[in-house]
Specification:
Radius of gyration of chain A: 24 Å
Structural class of chain B: alpha+beta
Cofactor (chain A): FAD
Organism (chain A): Hymenobacter duratus
CATH topology of the largest domain in chain A: FAD/NAD(P)-binding domain
CATH architecture of the largest domain in chain B: Orthogonal Bundle
Largest interface: A-B, 86 and 77 residues
Keywords (chain C): Membrane, Transmembrane, Transmembrane helix
Shape of chain B: elongated
Number of helices of chain B: 8
Number of helices of chain A: 18
InterPro entries (chain C): Cytochrome_b-558, SQR/QFR_C/D
Largest sheet of chain A: 5 strands, parallel
Protein name (chain C): Succinate dehydrogenase cytochrome b subunit
Strand content of chain B: 5-15%
Chains: A alpha+beta (644), B alpha+beta (251), C mainly alpha (223)
CATH architecture of the largest domain in chain A: 3-Layer(bba) Sandwich
Shape of chain A: globular
Strand content of chain A: 5-15%
Number of strands of chain B: 7
Oligomer: heterotrimer
Number of domains of chain A: 3
Strand order of the largest sheet of chain B: 2-1-5-3-4
Distance between the termini of chain B: 58 Å
Chain lengths: 644, 251, 223
C-alpha cells in the first residue's frame, strides 16, 4: 500500500497554517533529549541543522567537504525567488505558486508548492537579518530581477553569487550553533549507509575520508540534505563530489525514489571543448534577461562560422535567427529552461549550431551593450563575463557567448510526504535530495528557495511531529542493525578494493555518463532507453569485475570514494531509464520523442501520467516496484504549457 | 604539450613529504589545470600507483576547495583566479611546473596537496555571524541600506575561504580572511549589535590558531582570487581598536 | 586588568604598538633632522653646539628622552618578536616561492632593514651621544660642548661616511613601507585619504633620508 502524502485538508491557502497547528509539539525541556542527524550542510542541510539546534535538539551534522561552506549550493548564481511583490508588478503567493506548478508542467503537488511560495517571503527576511548582502536600489531597498518562466520581477540576488551569499548565511547560522555546542559537526565524513531499526531510521554509517575509519552514529531521526544526482551524466554543472550515494543507500533501505527521470538540462552552459572535460560551467540564466539567443539562419552560414571563416559579430542582422524570440514572442528569451534547451538542441540538430563542434548557439549582448554601455553590463554580469573569458579565452563584450545545454538539476529524488518524511519513518529528505516541489521542470531561482524553505521553515515544524511520538530515551548504536550496516559498508569497500582490474572509476563514470546523455538526456525514445538499460547492466557487471583502485582504504583515497559513488550511479542510472520508459508522455525536462505536438513541443498525457512515480527497491538486480501517487489539481487548470 | 610536474607527495600529516617528478603528455591548452592533474592521476591509477590527492569540487572558482601553490604562487601565475579556473594555455610546451600544498602551521597537510583548513571554520564559529534565530525577523525592507554600503559589504562577503591569503603571506597571516567577514558585518546594520564582541573573539581565535600577524605586505590581496581588498584589514584593525577601547568585555 | 595585556599581546595589538611607536619615531626623525640642519650653517658650529647643549641639558628634553628610548625599545622588541612569530607561523617553507611577484622586497624585509638601522644606531650613539654624555668633550668659543668638532672628525672617516650613507638607504626603505603601513595598521585607510598618505610617506622618507645622508657627504667633501 502506498503511504499517504499527508496533505492537510482544507483550502489551499490554509493548509500549511492548519497543519502547523495540528502537528504535535515537543516540550521545550524535552527537545535536548532528542538527537537528530543531518547529512549534508548545503542550503537545506545547513539551514535545517542550524534551525533544529536553535530549537534545542542535539544535532549531528555531516559533510564530506572539508567545511560546510563548500557545499555546491554555493555555485548557484542567479538568485532566489520570493513572492514579496516589492516591485508592485502583480506578484503574489498564488502567482508564484501558479508559475511553479505550471513551470513544472503539472507534475508537482499543489499543497507543497503553495507552502513553498508562502514561506518564500520569510526566507528573504531571514537572510537579510543574517547579513546576506543582497543587491539594493539607490534608495536602500532590495532590488529584484526577472527570471525565466515568470513575467514578474521577483528574484532577489547578490550579483552573480546569490548561492554563495545564501550558503554563507546558512553556514554562519550553523557555525553559531557549532560554537554553542548544539551542533556537533563532522567534516570529511561521507554517509555510506542508513541504519533502520524496527522499521525506523535510527542512524547512519559514515567513513572518515581522511583516516578511512568507519563510524556508527545513532539518532532519533535522520535528515538527508545531500543534493541531486545530476552527476549520473558525468558531465554536468554539478560539482565534482556531488553524488547520489546517501540518497541511494537510503533508497535501498526502504525509501522510495520518485520521478528519477526528471532531470533538468540548463540551456546556458559553456559548451564542451574536449574529451578531457571534467565538468561543465553554467552561465547564469539571468543572462537571458539581456542576452539574445540566436544561430545563423542557414546551414551554409553556420558551416562557415564553424570553420572560422566568418565571425559571429560580422553576420548581418537578417542572416540571424533569434529562434526563441521568433517562436515564443510572449516570453522570448525568457522561456523556461526545458523549452530553451530543447530549442537549442533542435537548432544544432538542424545543422545550424556554431562553435568548432557545432554544438552551441550564441547568446549575444551586443544590443544591451549598445543600449546601456559596457559599464552597466559589467555591473550586472561582470563576474560571469570574466568567468566565461577565463574558460574560453573569448571576450563576451566583443563577441557573443557560445552556450549549450547541460545537465544542471534533478527534480526527482527521494519520495517524501507533506512533512518531508520519506517512506522510512524518521528519515527526512530536504532540498534537491527530495522530489517534492518542482514537478517535471524547475524554474530558475527556485532551487535556493526550496532548499532554504525546507531547511529553515518546514523541517523544524514537521520533524517535531515525528519526534513527539518517539519516547525521549537515548538512542545508541547497540542494536545489531548498526553492526550489520557497518559490515555491509566494510564488505562493499573491501570488494571494491579487491577487484584489481584495469579500468578506473572515472573511466566507468564517463562511459555511464555518455550512455545517459545519449539515451536519457534532452530527448528520449523507447528504443534508445531499452538499449541504454541493457548497456548499463553490462557496464555494471564490468565495473564489479574490472575496476582498478590503488592505495588502501585506511587513508585519504579519492579514487575509492569515487568508485563507491560510481557504483551507486550505475544502479540509479538504470532506474532513471526505467522511469523514463514508464512515462509515455513528454513533460518538462522529460521529453519523449514519440510524444510531441506537431510543432515539436512536449505533449503531456494528464489522463494517464498525472502521477508521481515512486520506485521501491526490492533486491539487487531485480526490477523495482512502481508505486503511483496520483496528483490532484484543485486550484489550477491543467493546460498545455504555452509561452508563445 | 608535454610538461614536467614536480609534485609534493606526503603520505599523511605525520610523515615527511618530498617532491616527486612526473611527466604528462599531450596536454591540451584548453584544459583547466585540474583537468591536467586528472590526466596525471588516471595514468598513475592505471599503473597501480596512488593518484595525487588534492582538494577540488565545484571547478567554477566559487567553492574555495582548490588550493594549489603552483610555481611559487598561490593558485598559480594568473592573478584573480582559483586553481580550477587556471587554464593550461597559460603554460608552454616543455614547462616544468612545481605544485605544492598551502604551507602554514595552521593548515596541516592531510595528504599530498590536500590541507586541513578547519582553522577558518573555527574563526567563523568564534563570531562570524549575526545571532538571529530562524523566524521572527523583520521584513527585508525594514532597514534601508545605502547601495554603496551594501555593495561594499557584498564585495567583502565574496571571500571563498580558499586560504590563498594565508598561503601567499610571508607571515602566514589570516588577516585578509578575518577582515573580510568582520568588515562585511561591520558595514551592515544587521551586524552592528555584536560588532565589538565579534571582532574581539574572531581575532582571539585567529591568534589561537597560530596564524601570523599582518605586516601590510599586500601579497594576500594580490593573490586573492576574488579580489578582497586590503581596505578590509584596515577596517578590521579599526574595529579591533575601537572594540578593545570601548567594549565592556574585560578580556 | 588582563584585558590590557591581552589586547597588546594579540597580533593586532602588537602591530598597533609597532605602528604607534613607528610614527612616534618618525616625529623624532623630523626633530632630529631639523636640529641637525644647523650643521650646514657656516658659523664654525656655534649654533649647532648651542642647540646640542640645549638638547642634552634641558630637563623637559631629558624627560622626553626617556619616552624616546622607550619608543625605540618597544619598536625593536615588538618588531623582533613579531618577526620570529611570523616566521614560525609559516612552518615548513615552500620549495618554490615567487613572492616577489606579488609584493615589494622592502615590505617583506622590514626586520632586516630595521636591524641594519639598529646597527647603525648603536654606532651612531657610540660616536656622538656616548662621547657627549659620558666622555669629556671639548668646549667651543661660547663654552658649549663642541659637538660640531665631533661631527667634523667623524665625517672625515670614509668608513663612517659610507656606513652613514648606507644606513640612510636602509632607513629609506624601512620608512617607505613603514610610514603608510602604520596608518593601515591603525585602521586609517580611506579611499579619499590613503593615496595622500602614501604620497606623503614617500616624500617624507626621501626628504628625511636625503637630509641625513647629505651631512656626512657634505662634511667629507666640503669641510
Amino acid at each position: 500500500m502506498f503511504p499517504e502524502s499527508k496533505i492537510p485538508e482544507g483550502p489551499l491557502a490554509e493548509k500549511w497554517d492548519k497543519h502547523k497547528f495540528n502537528v504535535k509539539l515537543v516540550n521545550p525541556a524535552n527537545k535536548r533529549k532528542y538527537d537528530v542527524i543531518v547529512v549534508g550542510t548545503g542550503l537545506a542541510g545547513g539551514a535545517a541543522a542550524a534551525s533544529l539546534a536553535e530549537l534545542g535538539y542535539n544535532v549531528k551534522a555531516f559533510t564530506f567537504h572539508d567545511s560546510p561552506r563548500r557545499a555546491h549550493s554555493i555555485a548557484a548564481q542567479g538568485g532566489i525567488n520570493a513572492a514579496k511583490n516589492y516591485q508592485n508588478d502583480g506578484d503574489s503567493v498564488f502567482r508564484l505558486f501558479y508559475d511553479t506548478i505550471k513551470g513544472g508542467d503539472y507534475r508537482a503537488r499543489e499543497a507543497n508548492v503553495y507552502r513553498l511560495a508562502q514561506v518564500s517571503v520569510n526566507i528573504i527576511d531571514q537572510c537579510v537579518a543574517q547579513g546576506v548582502p543582497f543587491a539594493r536600489e539607490y534608495g536602500g531597498l532590495l532590488a529584484n530581477r526577472s527570471f525565466g518562466g515568470a513575467q514578474v520581477s521577483r528574484t532577489f540576488y547578490a550579483r552573480g553569487q546569490t548561492g554563495q551569499q545564501l550558503l554563507l548565511g546558512a553556514y554562519s547560522a550553523l557555525s553559531r550553533q557549532i560554537a554553542y555546542g548544539k551542533v556537533k559537526m563532522y567534516t570529511r565524513s561521507e554517509m555510506l549507509d542508513l541504519v533502520v531499526v524496527d522499521g525506523q531510521a535510527r542512524g547512519i554509517i559514515t567513513r572518515n575520508l581522511i583516516t578511512g575509519e568507519i563510524e556508527q552514529h545513532a539518532a532519533h531521526a535522520v535528515v538527508l540534505a545531500t543534493g541531486g544526482y545530476g552527476n549520473v551524466f558525468y558531465l554536468s554543472t554539478n560539482a565534482m563530489y556531488c553524488n547520489a550515494t546517501a540518497a541511494w543507500r537510503a533508497h535501498k533501505r526502504g525509501a522510495y525514489f520518485a520521478n528519477p527521470c526528471f532531470t533538468q538540462i540548463h540551456p546556458t552552459c559553456i559548451p564542451v571543448s574536449g574529451d578531457y572535460q571534467s565538468k561543465l560551467t553554467l552561465m547564469s540564466e539571468s543572462l537571458r534577461n539581456d542576452g539574445r539567443v540566436w544561430v545563423p539562419k542557414t546551414v551554409e552560414m553556420a558551416e562557415r562560422v564553424r570553420k572560422g571563416e566568418i565571425k559571429p559579430q560580422d553576420i548581418a542582422e537578417d542572416d540571424r535567427d533569434y529562434f526563441l524570440e521568433r517562436k515564443y514572442p510572449a516570453f522570448g528569451n525568457l522561456v523556461p529552461r526545458d523549452v530553451a534547451s530543447r530549442n537549442a538542441k533542435q537548432m544544432c540538430d538542424e545543422g545550424r549550431g556554431v562553435g568548432s563542434t557545432g554544438l552551441a548557439v550564441y547568446l549575444d549582448f551586443a544590443d544591451i551593450i549598445k543600449r546601456t554601455g559596457a559599464e552597466a553590463v559589467s555591473q550586472k554580469y561582470g563576474n560571469l563575463f570574466a568567468m566565461y573569458e577565463k574558460i574560453t579565452d573569448e571576450d563576451p563584450y566583443k563577441q557573443p557567448m557560445r552556450i549549450y545545454p547541460a545537465v544542471h538539476y534533478t527534480m526527482g529524488g527521494l519520495w517524501v510526504d507533506y512533512n518531508l518524511q520519506t517512506t522510512v519513518p524518521g528519515l527526512y529528505a530536504t532540498g534537491e535530495c527530495n522530489f517534492s516541489d518542482h514537478g517535471a521542470n524547475r524554474l530558475g531561482a527556485s532551487a535556493l528557495m526550496q532548499g532554504l524553505a525546507d531547511g529553515y521553515f518546514v523541517i523544524p515544524y514537521t520533524i517535531g511531529d515525528y519526534l513527539a511520538s518517539t519516547p525521549p530515551k537515548p538512542v545508541t548504536t547497540e542494536h545489531p542493525a548498526f553492526k550489520q550496516a557497518e559490515a555491509d559498508v566494510r564488505g562493499r569497500i573491501g570488494k571494491l578494493m579487491s577487484i584489481n582490474g584495469t579500468r578506473t572509476p572515472d573511466d566507468f563514470h564517463k562511459h555511464l555518463g555518455h550512455l545517459m546523455w545519449e539515451y536519457c538526456g534532452m530527448a528520449r525514445n523507447a528504443e534508445g532507453l531499452k538499449h541504454a538499460k541493457a548497456e548499463i547492466q553490462k557496464l555494471r557487471k564490468e565495473f564489479w569485475s574490472d575496476l582498478k583502485l590503488s592505495g588502501t582504504d585506511g587513508e585519504l583515497n579519492q579514487a575509492l570514494e569515487k568508485a563507491g559513488r560510481v557504483a551507486d550511479f550505475l544502479e540509479l542510472g538504470e532506474l532513471m531509464v526505467d522511469d523514463a520508459l514508464d512515462r509515455n508522455e513528454s513533460c518538462g525536462g522529460h521529453f519523449r520523442e514519440e510524444y510531441a505536438t506537431e510543432d515539436g513541443e512536449a505533449k503531456r498525457n494528464d489522463d494517464e501520467y498525472a502521477y508521481v512515480a515512486a520506485w521501491q527497491y526490492v533486491a539487487d538486480n531485480q526490477p523495482e516496484i512502481l508505486n503511483k501517487e496520483q496528483l490532484t489539481f484543485e486550484n489550477v487548470k491543467l493546460t498545455q504549457r504555452s509561452y508563445k | 604539450m608535454n610538461l614536467t610536474l614536480k609534485v609534493w607527495r606526503q603520505k599523511n600529516r605525520n610523515t615527511e613529504g618530498k617532491i616527486v617528478d612526473y611527466q604528462v603528455k599531450d596536454i591540451s591548452p584548453e584544459m583547466s589545470f585540474l583537468e591536467m592533474l586528472d590526466v596525471l592521476n588516471e595514468d598513475l591509477l592505471r599503473q597501480g600507483d596512488e593518484p595525487v590527492a588534492f582538494d577540488h569540487d565545484c571547478r567554477e572558482g566559487i567553492c574555495g576547495s582548490c588550493n594549489l601553490f603552483i610555481n611559487g604562487r598561490a593558485h598559480g601565475p594568473e592573478s584573480g583566479t582559483t586553481t580550477c579556473q587556471l587554464h593550461m594555455r597559460k603554460f608552454s610546451d616543455g614547462d616544468t611546473i612545481v605544485i605544492e600544498p598551502w604551507r602554514a602551521n595552521a593548515f596541516p597537510v592531510n595528504k599530498d596537496l590536500s590541507v586541513d583548513r578547519s582553522a577558518f571554520d573555527r574563526i567563523i564559529q568564534a563570531g562570524g555571524y549575526v545571532s538571529v534565530n530562524t523566524g521572527g525577523t523583520p521584513d527585508g525592507n525594514e532597514i534601508p541600506i545605502p547601495k554603496e554600503i551594501a555593495d561594499r559589504a557584498f564585495e567583502a562577503a565574496t571571500c571563498i575561504g580558499c586560504g590563498a591569503c594565508v598561503a601567499s603571506c610571508k607571515n602566514a597571516s589570516a588577516m585578509l580572511f578575518v577582515s573580510a567577514k568582520v568588515s562585511q558585518l561591520a558595514l551592515l546594520p544587521q551586524g552592528h549589535v555584536e560588532r565589538k564582541t565579534r571582532v574581539e573573539n574572531m581575532v582571539a581565535q585567529m591568534d589561537k590558531e597560530g596564524f601570523g600577524a599582518c605586516t601590510n605586505i599586500g601579497s594576500c590581496a594580490a593573490e586573492c582570487p576574488v579580489g578582497i581588498s586590503l581596505e578590509n584589514i584596515a577596517i578590521l584593525n579599526r574595529e579591533f581598536l575601537a572594540a578593545k577601547a570601548t567594549s565592556n568585555n574585560l578580556v | 586588568m588582563s584585558w590590557i595585556s591581552n589586547t597588546f599581546s594579540s597580533s593586532i595589538g602588537r602591530k598597533i604598538v609597532m605602528a604607534a611607536t613607528g610614527l612616534f619615531l618618525c616625529s623624532f626623525l623630523v626633530v632630529h633632522l631639523v636640529g641637525n640642519l644647523q650643521l650646514f650653517k657656516n658659523d664654525g658650529g656655534l649654533a649647532f653646539n648651542a642647540y646640542s647643549e640645549f638638547m642634552s641639558h634641558n630637563t623637559i628634553i631629558r624627560i622626553l628622552e626617556i619616552g624616546l628610548v622607550a619608543g625605540f625599545g618597544l619598536h625593536i622588541f615588538e618588531g623582533l618578536l613579531l618577526a620570529s612569530k611570523n616566521k614560525a607561523a609559516r612552518g615548513s617553507s615552500y620549495v618554490s616561492n615567487h613572492i616577489e611577484q606579488n609584493s615589494p622586497w622592502h615590505s617583506r624585509n622590514m626586520a632586516v632593514l630595521g636591524s641594519l638601522v639598529l646597527f647603525f644606531l648603536i654606532v651612531h650613539l657610540y660616536n656622538f651621544f656616548g662621547t657627549l654624555r659620558f666622555g669629556e668633550p671639548l668646549k667651543d668659543a661660547q663654552g658649549n660642548e663642541n659637538a660640531y668638532a665631533l661631527v667634523v672628525d667623524a665625517f672625515h672617516n670614509i668608513f663612517y661616511v659610507a656606513l652613514y650613507v648606507l644606513a640612510q638607504f636602509a632607513l629609506l626603505y624601512h620608512l617607505l613601507h613603514g610610514f603608510q603601513s602604520a596608518f593601515q595598521t591603525l585602521g586609517l585607510n580611506h579611499r579619499k585619504y590613503t593615496p595622500l598618505i602614501k604620497l606623503v610617506g614617500v616624500v617624507f622618507s626621501v626628504v628625511v633620508c636625503a637630509g641625513f645622508a647629505a651631512m656626512p657627504i657634505y662634511f667629507y667633501f666640503f669641510k
